[in-house]
Amino acid sequence: MALQTGGDMRSTVTSEYINKQASTTTAYQAVSLSPGANLSQSDPYGFAANTQLSVRGLGGNEVGQVWEGMPVNDIETYNGYPSFWADGEDIDSVSLTQGSSTIAAPVVNAAGGQVTTTMRDPSKKMGGLVDYSYGTLNLERFYGRFDTGEIGHTGLSAYVSFSNGTAKNSLGPGRQTRRHVDFGFKKEFNNGDTIRLMGSYIDMDYMYNPNPTMADWQASGRSYAWSGTFSPGSSDYWTQNRWKWEQIMLSMPSEFTLPEKIKLNVTPYFLYAMQNSPASSSLSTDGNYYGTQPVSLNIPDNAASGGSVRSDYVGLQSVGGVNASLTRKFGVQKVTFGYWYQYSVDSLSMPFSSVGAGGDAGSAWSTHNITMANGQPYYAEKEQTISQTNALYLQDEISLLHDRLKIIGGLKTLMMSRDGTNSLPGPQYHVTANNFEPLPRVSITYKINNHHQIFVNGTTNTLMPIDDTLYNSYSGGAVATQGNSAIKPEYSISEELGYRYQDRYVHASLALFNYNFTNRQVSSLRYVNNVAVYSTINGGGQTSRGVDFEAGLMPFHGFSPYVSLEYLHATIDNNIQVGNDYLRTAGKIAVRSPSFQGAVGLVYDHKNIFGSFSFKYTGSQYSTFMDDEKMPAYKTFNLSLGYRLPSVGFVKHPEIRVAFINLTDEKVLSGIASPALNANNAVGTHGTTIAGSAPEYYIAPRFTTAMTIAAGF
Q1: CA distance 204 to 704
Q2: How many CB atoms lie within 10 A of CB 346?
Q3: Alpha-carbon distance 55 to 96, whole Å?
Q4: Cα gap 341→321, rounded to integer Å
Q5: CB 706 within 8 A of CB 658
Q6: Cα(358)–Cα(352) distance, rounded to whole angstroms?
Q7: Are 196 and 679 in contact (CB under 8 A)?
Q8: Element (H, E) at 162
Q9: How many angstroms separate the CA atoms of 446 and 498, rounded?
Q10: pLDDT grade for 485, boundaries at 50, 70 and 90
Q11: d(CA 462, CA 679)
């Protein structure tokens, strides 16, 4: 546990812990033992995107993701994909702020907190690191890094790393392939100013496993997966469900000292991503609609495939922005004023690709070859959204009683405007949406003495509506989902009262928290031609209250035990409208909100031997707003063991470590992928019958083990 002095609950893990785990460890996996963190995943190595980190019952799209000062949430859905950002060997630290985000964070979705990932600085000495991993599911992964050291006496240093990993899909046929590059440059000036340029590139091919309903899980268990054999006319062949993602991120966080002792922090950044999230589907040459227009289709190899096609879901994202702030001290006050601007373009389309007699389609980027009679490509969806975000923030920090008492007040005004086009024929073409949210906050910390501290805070946070809510979707020539540009953002008011004890041996934190939500937005899924498309359910008002606790022992004779606990009581405040009626949801327990979570960890590091053990228990949680279906509680055990060998020649600090994931091979569900309003038919307040729909879940990874051999030079 890192030392914490701020006015909020926060958990931080460093590279010292991360590098004792499997080499494939992601930022989410690193903080998964923290109080309130509920990690759902299907891939033990973190390659696939079937993953979600919820915090205090709030979904992954409500957790702001900041990597080296830039936002890295998917701009379409606000979900986070930590395997895209960094290799574990290059991460310096990962912090989870459970209740809020920092005032300067460039995020629009932090109602559930903030995950901050910081990369390592280049080494001052020339050298590097190489490691190789082999394990269950035919895992093979190579990682190599080279540090230039300080170049001359310029204060400039740099590093670049490359990794290539592949493994079989843990649930059914297929493989995961991940190629990744991290690089960093740092320029240090004599007056202490710094310029850092950090970059990350990812190229991934991976399986997005199907998410079972409870009935599917009870009938098939882990065997619920895509088919390994193609049958003409089928819509479940694995190669048509193989996702592709390429992305590059660049961030340049810099600090300068200006006249009058003014500190300037400025972070320009850029992200470009290409993704195809396809699914297996079927089409016929006749009886189709392009928006609201009937069309006939040209489908190559239609007879050989029996009508099977690949439903492509292609997204191109371009994001650029800058976040800058000025800070100056005035006696006991420290004032910060900042501005954040971001411009993003999100282009989404759903073309189709033909498949051959064997079920295989061509390139994920260029094969979309199913056309209409006029020769133009056929789309089920085609939208482009241009978003501009402006935020001004002002914070005043006052230090009193010889810095024992700190009072911080701030205001952030968040403005987001969107301009979009829906290119399918129909009643909708151009859409606009504008949202403005004032986000005040205050925190007080009081240091009783060198070991005891109390803190209290009140913050406001928001979650802007996702792009998908703006647009009509069509089925059978009619509007299936009505776009709505007037949806209000989720808004939360939260309070925390906390206590910390930190001495030479023990670090402990306790926080009582309370949230009140309006326009609660819960991430869910809808399906268009079998493609899972993220959408939201408006849960209205919600109240969440609970307790977070964590404690850790600093290394004592090599041992460092850790424990975390959370109790959560989250309830829906109102009935939810469905059509012209209302479901009786008032007073029900909120979805994805286990009442109890607990974790125990133990790290041992003494001389040549090191290792870690962790146990996590997650209580049962409802998957519907009517509380008529529940995911059972589950537990997981992980273990890693390592041994350091003596250096030999230019080979420095070689080591061998073995990681055991899901050590006891628990056959469980790990999370709720898609909550529903009601699983069973229900009678609304006006007497009409509201049909139920089945929620979907993530299947927890099976037992896996991976051995890593690593050495520096």
Answers
A1: 21
A2: 22
A3: 9
A4: 5
A5: yes
A6: 17
A7: no
A8: strand 156-168
A9: 11
A10: confident
A11: 29
Q: Is the pLDDT of residue 523 over 80?
A: no
Distance CA(407)–CA(411), nearest Å, equals 14
Give the span between the Cα atoms of 564 and 586, in whole angstroms: 31
Residue 529 has pLDDT above 80, yes or no: no
Write out the two tokens for 230.
């193609």
The conformational region for residue 250 under phi > 0 = left, psi -120 to 50 = alpha, else beta, is beta
For the chain, helix (H) and strand (E) counts, in that order, are 4, 47
Query: 182 and 90 in contact (C-beta within 8 Å)?
Result: yes
Query: What one-character-per-residue DSSP string does 558-617 give?
Result: TEEEEEEEEEEEEEE-S-EEETTEEE--TTPBPTT--SEEEEEEEEEEETTEEEEEEEEE
CA distance to 155, 194, 195, 493, per residue, from 190 (Å): 8, 9, 12, 44
H or E element: which one contains 275?
A: strand 262-276
Please state, as a whole number, how many other Cβ atoms lie within 10 Å of the Cβ of residue 376. Answer: 10
Q: What average pLDDT does this structure show over 477-497? A: 90
Q: Are 432 and 485 in contact (CB under 8 A)?
A: yes
| Cα(327)–Cα(325) distance, integer angstroms | 7
- Positive or negative, the CA dihedral 425, 428, 429, 435 is negative
According to DSSP, residue 534 is labeled: E
The count of other CB atoms within 10 Å of the CB of residue 261 is 9
Q: Concatenated DSSP letters for 373-441?
A: TTSPBP-S-EEEEEEEEEEEEEEEEEEETTTTEEEEEEEEEEEEEEEEEE-SSSS--EEEEEEEEEEEE
Expressed in angstroms, the distance from the first to the final Cα of the chain is 29
What does 193-228 look like in DSSP terms, one character per residue?
-EEEEEEEEEEEEEE-PPPPPHHHHHHHGGG---BS
Asked if 74 and 83 count as a contact pair (C-beta separation under 8 A), the reply is: no
> Measuring CA to CA, which residue among 468, 446, 442, 464 is closest to residue 455?
446
Contact, 583 vs 690, CB < 8 A? yes
- d(Cα 624, Cα 683) in Å, to the nearest integer? 15
Contacts of 306 (CB under 8 A, 6+ apart): 231, 232, 233, 234, 282
Q: For residue 16, is pLDDT > 80?
A: yes
Q: How far apart are CA 675 and CA 585, in angstroms?
A: 14
β pairing state of 473-475 and 405-422: unpaired
* Closest C-alpha to 98, from 70, 64, 75, 72: 64
Phi/psi of residue 336, nearest 5 degrees = -125, 130
Region 236-256 average pLDDT: 95
Q: Which two tokens stand for residue 114?
A: 């903030």
Provide the token pair at 436. 């403005």
- Per the CB < 8 A criterion, the answer to whether 94 and 116 are in contact is yes
The residue among 372, 371, 352 whose CA lies nearest residue 362 is 352
**Strand bridging mode 531-553 / 194-207:** unpaired
pLDDT in tens, 278-301: 999 999 999 999 999 999 999 999
Amino acid at 73: N
Indicate the helix (H) or strand (E) that contains 447: strand 430-447
Q: Which two tokens stand for residue 401?
A: 């009683």
Measured from the Cβ of residue 534, the count of other Cβ atoms closer than 10 Å reads 18
Phi-psi group of 578: left, alpha or beta (phi > 0 → left; psi -120 to 50 → alpha; rest → beta)? beta
The Cα angle at residue 558 between residues 553 and 564, in degrees rounded to 5? 30
Which segments of 49-153 are extended strands (E)?
51-55, 64-67, 70-71, 91-97, 114-119, 127-135, 139-147
How many angstroms separate the CA atoms of 516 and 286, rounded?
Answer: 51
Please state the pTM of the whole predicted model.
0.94
Taking a C-beta distance cutoff of 8 angstroms, is the pair 346, 313 a contact? no
β-pair partners for 14: 93
Gap between the Cα atoms of 51 and 213, Å rounded: 17
Pairing label, strands 652-661, 634-644: antiparallel
